């Protein structure tokens, strides 16, 4: 993944503000960032989006995308101007039906000035008409749009929306989505949620998708190509749509053998995390050359490389676990990434137990014993790893080790109550690591500050007394590799190019 910290642009000088008439002085530009210290320019201030309606046309042969995005939002301050995060070429912007002026700034800011200032609490409709070639655009030296032989895919973390729709691009601003995509007959357009309808006319087919539960912008996805689609229903009654590129080659069988178990795995995860929180399910495997997978809401993205060594249900477990830990409950800030990745990794450990390929405790013992005290692995703090280490392997493995330490500390009854209750406590919202600690203390009735500090925040290996206190075996003899380890390790690049 690609990371760069950019300081937000400065606001107008106070001397200029003095020249503004008193009647307009309360109106000010929305901030060009939502306030995340890891990514200061991501997201925007001054408004909150409730719904995105995206009406798109895409030509796979040329990677040309045309779109009209309609955003329903409400202002959160007296607003003279506001930003959207976007990279493609804009031809027109309207705010509440009236043309607005616009310009671009920074790496990915679309600055919009409505004809009249907007008072705090105003419901607004923003329409953006645009076009461009997504694969030709970069920000901070990278792209999140993946060109494929038969089309393109928008999928990445923590940013992917800029390449195909304008947005308030931060998990704090979730919204519902309607995504309607016109593609040439013979191609399919895959997105999140439920396929509402398809219709064909004059050589083009329109695919209409709906996500009616709050969804973070980085979890929205679009894939256009030639896919084989399968449909089904889980035991719990959730409709499943999976899609596989027709040119996956030797990886096709393993990909399908893995992703077709999505319904089964989601039902199994429900026993730990509570009822599946959305009304659609599935996965898709486009013919990309990326190495990672991503928990795009209701329909995870998988790279063909995930199945290069055969079927891999462990990666499916990981991405489906995110539907609760990451999608249903999203991070308050990107420093809280442990809540996403630690628990998705721990779900793989639980799957290992389910498959009789090594218990979670054996896997925890193995992780602890496999990394000597001077290993850089221990310098990464999963509870606040920094943007440069946001997807470091320690966030996954040390993060899951911390969860096992918590389980051992509070006992299985309280632990599994936490595991299931947490997604319900913050359903469709956002939460932090501090929120999780507070909730675990509430459920268990135990003070946990020292345990969280030791296993999540200290840049060093927890010593033998701490390990013994959390029932983590530390002897070299415990470094016996569980049978599931190879499959789990095969998913270590789920967020790495």
Automatic annotation (TrEMBL):
**Is this entry keyworded Protease?**
yes
Respond yes or no to whether keyword Transmembrane helix is given for this record: no
Residue ranges constituting the Aminopeptidase N-like N-terminal domain according to the UniProt record? 50-219
InterPro entries in the record: Aminopeptidase_N-like_N, Aminopeptidase_N-like_N_sf, Peptidase_M1, Peptidase_M1_aminopeptidases, Peptidase_M1_dom, Peptidase_M4/M1_CTD_sf
| Enzyme class of the recorded protein, top EC level | hydrolase
Protein keywords: Hydrolase, Metal-binding, Metalloprotease, Protease, Signal, Zinc
What are the BP-aspect GO terms? proteolysis
What's a single GO MF annotation on this record? metallopeptidase activity
Cofactor(s) the protein needs: Zn(2+)
EC annotation? Answer: 3.4.11.2
Q: Which domain of life is it from?
A: Bacteria
- Signal sequence bounds: 1-24
- Describe the reaction catalysed, as an equation: Release of an N-terminal amino acid, Xaa-|-Yaa- from a peptide, amide or arylamide. Xaa is preferably Ala, but may be most amino acids including Pro (slow action). When a terminal hydrophobic residue is followed by a prolyl residue, the two may be released as an intact Xaa-Pro dipeptide
UniProt domain Peptidase M1 membrane alanine aminopeptidase: residue ranges: 310-455
Q: Name one Pfam family in it.
A: Peptidase_M1_N
For this protein, the record's PANTHER family field holds: AMINOPEPTIDASE N (PTHR11533:SF297), PROTEASE M1 ZINC METALLOPROTEASE (PTHR11533)
Which family is annotated? Belongs to the peptidase M1 family.
Annotated protein name in UniProt: Aminopeptidase N
